[in-house]
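Hello Y.,

Per our agreement to keep a running log of every chain we model this quarter, I'm adding this entry. I've kept the format consistent with earlier entries: sequence first, then predicted structure.
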Amino acid sequence: MTFSGGARRITLVRAFQFVFGLCAVLSLTACAGRPGPEALSLSQSALPDTKQVTVYVATTRENKEGLGYTDGKAPELNFAAYTVSVPPGHKAGEIEWPKGGNPDPAKTFAVTAQRTLSADEFYREVGNQAKTEASDGTDVGVFVHGFNFNFQESLFRVVQMSADANVEGVPVLFAWPSQAAVTGYLADKESVTYSRDYLAETLTRLTAGRGKGRVLLFGHSMGGWLVVETLRQLKLSDRSDVLAKLNVMLAAPDIDVDVFRQQMAVIGPMSPPLTILVSKDDRALQASQFLTGNGRIGALDVADPVVAQVAEREKILLVDVSGISPTNPLNHDRYVQLAALYPKLTAERQDLSSVGGFILDVAANTVSSPFRLVKLAITPQ
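Predicted structure for the entry above:
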């Protein structure tokens, strides 16, 4: 293939400049003091009356002595439970990282307890805790992280979101072996593919025996691809009983538009509707689109009538979250701020059977259609 013509050359140069610029931002972000395994060191001191969040972990990461959960692929699921204290001065949307191996509960997140669990212990404790926290047994939330996360980043992100949402429930982290590197995109894609069977197994066991209860399933970025692939696999395995007990939300999913259409053709409509948080100015997804040559679901424009019509036809709830301030220049992590809005949004919730394209109005704490005045809550029930 050859390129000719001044305009075409300029376009190509600008495209490469755009991608290289994004890579530079990613590299700077990655080098800005990313936490190592020492962030999980047990706190040597306790601070009374601090909020404690216990996260149950199911992971396909390899566990190596002295290194913790690495980017290696484990031959079977590993299970654990971490209790983390949140400092009194915690700022919503932020993670107050411990420095070195000496966390200060007064100022930083601090691991106060850690246990390795067997599979039976994991599922039994999550089930028992869910019954304790919520009388209807509905509040188990499974978080599937995205591209370029190490284990401690994903764990503390779940703690932050749980603390900010300030609701009863049992947080579960499904951690897959991300390389935690800007150059690890292709390797990460292989790792999520490797993890599909294990996520399906986790969801099958978490939903078993829950009666009317549901499991909230949240996937971010490449974790969204893992979630949807797992839903497709469950459907093909004739496990619609598992799908029927899931509330699914995807944040900035890094999924090819055409691939997603084929996935949903197999999965079919979900009840409550599959919810997707999108923003058309997501620079990370713009880079992914450039590299792959195809649009990404997480960057759809809900103000486009065609997009809204397709969402209605496919029984999907698309919510534009561009009104939420991002925490980094890539505009790829707005979901972390959403947790703090959770109580206000759910307090205003109305009929959530509606589907189509909607816009989150942060000031009004509502989700409204750009085409008609409809007040909606963002969290499926």
